Amino acid sequence: MRKTEKFKIILDYFNEHQPDAASELHYDDPYQLLVAVILSAQCTDKRVNIITPPLFEQFPTVYDLANASVEEIFAFIKSCSYPNNKAKSLSGMAKSVISNFNGEIPGDVDDLQKLPGVGRKTANVISSVIFNQPSMAVDTHVFRVSHRLGLVAKTAKTPLLVEQQLIKHIPDEIIPKAHHWLILHGRYVCVARKPKCTECPFTELCDYFNKTI
To answer: Mind telling me the catalytic residues?
Structure first.
């Protein structure tokens, strides 16, 4: 099967069955999503959604977060992974948003990556989810699903290479939604250790299934 045909089948299926796919992180504005995504690194969305309500109640704006000490931030996020580093990142991010972007969360991927604690994956999430830009964030789920389904070459061994290959075959207007489709498929069906192949609609075209099952 040609790769273009495989992409079309998969994207058409998701578009029909999950037309409203969205982030499972809870947020009300760009500031809240950026904080949540920074916290979500190597941490579950479920845990982040428990942490953020009291955090945002205490620090409702990026200015409030910038005025907080690292220790004050840590007290609210200590139950997530790597809280010391994330507290420093959140503090630095907030100060940088104010000093370099007039208190507004930037939408450009390169600008976002200038903020402490913001790598390319996080930048792509913000650019995609908030600003509806054709940015493909590649986390462990997207990386795994893309390889198993054969959407990217075996030689695509880095998130950046996976990102570059995916966006070549996905129309710009649905890249933001496709990001969620791949994440959710990896989170609930194509899981890391024991993929639920009996629940997957793509077994006939899945490289992993056809080679290992």
So the answer is: 121, 139
pLDDT digits (tens, 9 = 90+) for 71-111: 999 999 999 999 999 999 999 999 999 999 999 999 999 99
Q: How much is the pLDDT for 46?
A: 96
User: 15: buried, middle or exposed (CB in 10 Å: 19+, 13-18, 0-12)?
Assistant: middle
d(CA 79, CA 85): 13
Global pTM? 0.92
d(CA 108, CA 21): 23
How many angstroms separate the CA atoms of 161 and 44, rounded? 25
Q: Provide the residue type at 28 as one letter.
A: D
Q: Which residues contact 149 (CB under 8 A, 6 or more apart)?
A: 6, 10, 190, 202, 205, 206, 207, 208
Residue 30 tokens, joined: 């760009």
- What's the half-sphere exposure (Cβ side, CA atoms, 13 Å) at 198? 1
Residue 192 CB contacts under 8 Å (≥ 6 apart), including other chains:
140, 144
Q: Is 207 exposed, middle or buried (0-12, 13-18, 19+ CB in 10 A)?
A: middle
